[in-house]
Amino acid sequence: MTEPSTGRKSALPTHKHIDGSALSRLYRERFAEEDLEFKSRAWRILCDRIFQRHVDPADTVLDLGAGRCEFINAIRAKDKIAVDLNPDVAEHAIDARVALQSSTDMSEVENDSVDVVFSSNFLEHLPTKEAVLETLVECRRILRASGTLIILMPNMRYLHGRYWDYFDHHTPLTHNSLAEALGLTGFDVVSLAPRFLPYTVKQRTLPHSVVLLKLYLRMPWVWRFVGRQMLVVGRLR
Predict the structure, then answer these.
(1) Confidence band (pLDDT; 50, 70, 90) for 171?
(2) Which of 125, 181, 116, 191 is nearest to 153 (CA)?
(3) How many CA atoms lie within 13 A of 176 on its CB side?
(4) Model confidence over 77-87: pLDDT tens digits?
(5) What span, in angstroms and rounded, lies between the C-alpha atoms of 63 and 93?
(6) From CA 210, how far away is CA 41, in angstroms rounded?
(7) What mean pLDDT, rounded, does the chain reach?
(8) What CATH architecture does domain 32-59+106-236 belong to?
(9) Nearest-angstrom CA–CA distance, 77 and 95
(10) Burial of 29: CB neighbours in 10 Å, binned 0-12, 13-18, 19+
């Protein structure tokens, strides 16, 4: 027998879709304030020491899955675009144009208009590998000739069960499978670090320390012991 309807629309996300308001609730509750403060400081260092080398100050840069906009606020670029489905992104973007759009349909962004697409901890949230490929095809569409795609994300090869600690993780990839996906969508891999950063700022094996982060970035040999996220840089063929 069918249960009678209450006439009220549920405020909970369905199994098929997590909308912008659900994303907002999820991410507001995920990290403690001390984690968020350290993330902001850490991203300024990461941009200065690692990511700025791929970005010319005259470039147009798009942050795909911009979240709290730590990257796009810290990187030096002429034009900035922050893409995310979470409406909270507008509260965090300082000097970036905000596009509340899906990664598989960035129609607000013109063809051949972006020099660098950056994505951090995003592709694993897509529901399927087909959506990953569709996202990469969209990145190809908006990038100018010889444009650069930078991807930072968990490497399933080194995470195993910990990968599933987050409810919105769906599509696990390793550095090898990501490299294949890039090849299928017209990118050449120009730089690949299978082990780069630790998995999450929520870990407590090391203290939140800017000094330790700067030291860590200067010693790539340590990455193979601590790194659980990969850093892959692709370029349009």
Answers:
(1) very high
(2) 125
(3) 3
(4) 999 999 999 89
(5) 11
(6) 7
(7) 86
(8) 3-Layer(aba) Sandwich (3.40)
(9) 10
(10) exposed
* Residue whose tokens read 């200065």: 48
Q: Distance (Å, rounded) from C-alpha 167 to C-alpha 125?
A: 9
Pairing of strands 229-236, 187-193: antiparallel
> What is the DSSP track for 183-218?
HHTTEEEEEEESS-S-S-TT--SS---HHHHHHHHT
pLDDT band at 36 (very low <50, low <70, confident <90, very high): low
CA distance linking residue 217 with residue 107, whole number of Å: 36
State how far the Cα of 209 lies from the Cα of 50, in Å rounded to an integer: 17
Q: Which two tokens stand for residue 115?
A: 């020099």
pLDDT of residue 229: 94
Looking at residue 115, the DSSP 8-state letter turns out to be: E
CA nearest neighbour of 106 among 63, 68, 148: 63
